[in-house]
Amino acid sequence: MADKNVREPVILGAARTPQGKLMGVLAPLSAAELGQVAFGAAVERSGIDPAEVDEVLVGNVVSAGVGQALPRQISINAGIPDHVGGVAINKVCGSGLKSVMLASSAIKAEDGDLYVAGGVESMSNAPHMSRVRAGAKFGGVTMEDALETDGLRDTFNEWMMGNAAEFIAKQLEVTREEMDEFSYRSHKLAAEATEAGKFKAEIAPVTIKTRKGEIVVDSDEPIRSDTTVEALAGLRPAFEKDGQVTAGNAPGLNDGSAAVVVASREYAEKKGHQPIARVVGYGQAA
To answer: What is the DSSP string of 141-158?
Structure first.
């Protein structure tokens, strides 16, 4: 039973960018630029005074090359005054949601009343790196992919996330057919929702400047409306010779950002804001 004396966190506004594929339509934009769109739209839609924000919380995993203080880059460029602090959170795939959890916890602890929380990733801009600070005395120089080393490879087992998926599939006895069917259903439902305009309310369009003019991106790029179970079944395993994880049933490599405005219910009522949701609870794993 909830403690009536504990303050309740509520959501006042939310927004996300469209999702882009690796080296796709959103690749020209940095993580800071993508975050600026989502966080700025969430603040605007909520109707809050940006000067009253207590802190900006940003989940981000591949931070190599994003520049100093990514949350500050995002918040200031999104119209939040520079007296508002920001912090980055890295909990791998749970980073963005963890930022919302921390905002909710801060409200319950009476540390503040108003937070902007979310996440951003630009996988397309993850750099290749070489450890040459001490010099390269002889021979070639090896490059590392920050997307792999910082995001997709388990440092304990030297596994890619696809190998981890193979391990879990074996443990839970998930078949290739079940994985392909789930992937097909996901694409089908997403395509139908897009066609029906159900994502329009949550998407903040992204404007990209090119030499030929401006391009406005307002729909998700990775959705495959033409995929079939048969096409998915014909793909080769991507990580293990006799494995089940393929390019068709694995999560994509994407660019995008999402954000929510989290406030105490007392703040919302005092300022006359109508919450769109409330945070009832949350849980996490390592």
So the answer is: ---EEHIIIIIIEETTTT
2 pLDDT more than 80: no
User: Is a pLDDT exceeding 80 seen at residue 1?
Assistant: no
What DSSP string describes 79-97? Answer: T--TTSEEEEE-BTBTHHH
Rounded distance between C-alpha atoms, residue 16 and residue 19, angstroms? 9
**Domain locations in the chain?**
9-127+253-278
DSSP notation for 11-57 = EEEEEEPPPEETTSTTTTS-HHHHHHHHHHHHHHHHT--GGG--EEE
Cα(17)–Cα(26) distance, rounded to whole angstroms? 10
Instruction: Identify whether the C-beta of residue 90 lies closer than 8 Å to the C-beta of residue 72.
Output: no
Whether the CB-CB separation of 25 and 85 falls below 8 Å is answered with no
pLDDT at 3: 64
**Which residue in the block uniquely carries the two structure tokens 């329009």?**
200
CB 284 within 8 A of CB 93: no
Whether the CB-CB separation of 232 and 183 falls below 8 Å is answered with: yes
Which region among 1-10, 34-43, 126-135, 199-208 has the lowest average model confidence (pLDDT)? 1-10
Torsion of CA 66, 68, 69, 73, to 10 degrees: -70
Q: Which CATH architecture has domain 9-127+253-278?
A: 3-Layer(aba) Sandwich (3.40)
What's the first-to-final CA gap in the chain, in angstroms?
25
Sign of CA dihedral 23, 28, 31, 34: negative
